Structure formats: C-alpha cells, structure tokens
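Final report, closing paragraph on structural work. Over the funding period we assembled a curated collection of sequence-structure pairs, and we close with a single example.
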Amino acid sequence: MNWAQIQRDWQGMGPLLKTYWPKLTDVDLEQVKGRRDDMVASLQGLYGYGKEEAERALAIFEKEVRFPGAVK
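Its predicted structure, as stored:
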C-alpha cells in the first residue's frame, strides 16, 4: 500500500497505526491528518527516532499493510 492510499483512508488507518506505534493517540492522528511529513515528525517526537529511522519505519508499514481482502 502506498502513502496516498493510507492518506485517503486516514480515519480507518488509525487503529492499525496504533498497533504499530502504541504511543500514538487519537489527538496525534488528528493532528497528522494523513500528512506523511507530520507522521514522521510524530514518530520522531514519540519514539525518539531520527528522521531516517522514522522514514524507514513508515516504509516498512507501507510495505506490510494491505487493505482488507487484498491479495498478496
């Protein structure tokens, strides 16, 4: 899944994002509003990631996440 798909279904992605990063709150997700750069900044602040580490974590998330019913 690419970030554009995640952004389109941002409301539905909240619970899944929180399974990957449990420190994320609903308020954090509301502030991010699907903007990838803001998500990177949130991960940096909440988890102490460097920018590259946060980018890498999001890339892994994008690679692993599939829409329900999607075929690999």
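The two ends are 11 Å apart (CA to CA). The chain has one domain: 3-64. We thank the funder for supporting this effort.
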